[in-house]
Task: structure prediction
Amino acid sequence: MMAYIARRLLAVIPVLFGLTLIVFFIMALIPGDPATAILGSYATPENVERLNRQLGLDRSLPEQYLIWLGNLMQGDLGRSYSLNRPVLDEVTERFGATLILAGTSLLLCSILGLLAGVVSAVRQYGLTDKIVTFAVLIGISTPSFWLGLLLILVFAVQWRLFPASGMYAIYGGGDLPDLLRHLFLPAVTLSVVATGVIARLTRTAMLEVLRQDYIRTARAKGLHESRVIWRHAFKAALVGVIPVIGIQAGFVLGGAVYIETVFQWPGIGSMLVTAISTRDLLLVQGGVLVVAAAYVLFNLLADVAQTLLDPRLR
Result:
């Protein structure tokens, strides 16, 4: 098992290296000049040239990439142009908020998706199956940003049950109940699409397992139906669903960009939107790289969990 984990960790290295290339050169293709964006009304040709020289932006792209990669290997993501602080400090501070939102959403969509998929498969072609299938179809088809605005309008503006934005109350609060109240709407919004995907695939996997001979044998032995479903069928179906949960972790992290913007959640997503608008290249590169690395790590954890559940994969 340790050898398998070591091989997967080694395979992550070229993936992360490729990510650095993609992130850097895509950012280089974005139109506009960082120096001009930073200087604003003081962006005379002389000032722009001087600032580009100070920031190292007068060098060729390969030189800039090698310098950035060398600093990255030493744990230095550079210094933000617009915030005038180390990128690593800003990304680390923001990533905590994103991890709370994405982790809660992933936990929520995993639990609800698995339960909905199992219930739908057990009640195949019944009323419950039709209701779950219809709800899943609506959830997958609904744009997350529109759903977020709708939830704000209903639950925050009209009913005043939950706050519309932020992570904590401006005055007072700051404790766990305050965090949970602010977390509810963005976490639900972010988890709806992933819940539908997991539910559909869980239903398919469960239906396939329930047709196996050993399930019929277990029922013929007189085992209780709940034990057949949860201890035998669900465990076997979960092996095929876990990689999908790992993929949805990436969707949740990516979706946090616009959900955080809608709910003004102080995470990496809202940071990236502001950094792109100010052409803060180093901040964007650092934020995207951290999110991509987290996605790769989530998929690695999903593969390890799948291997633990299915001895045949070892």
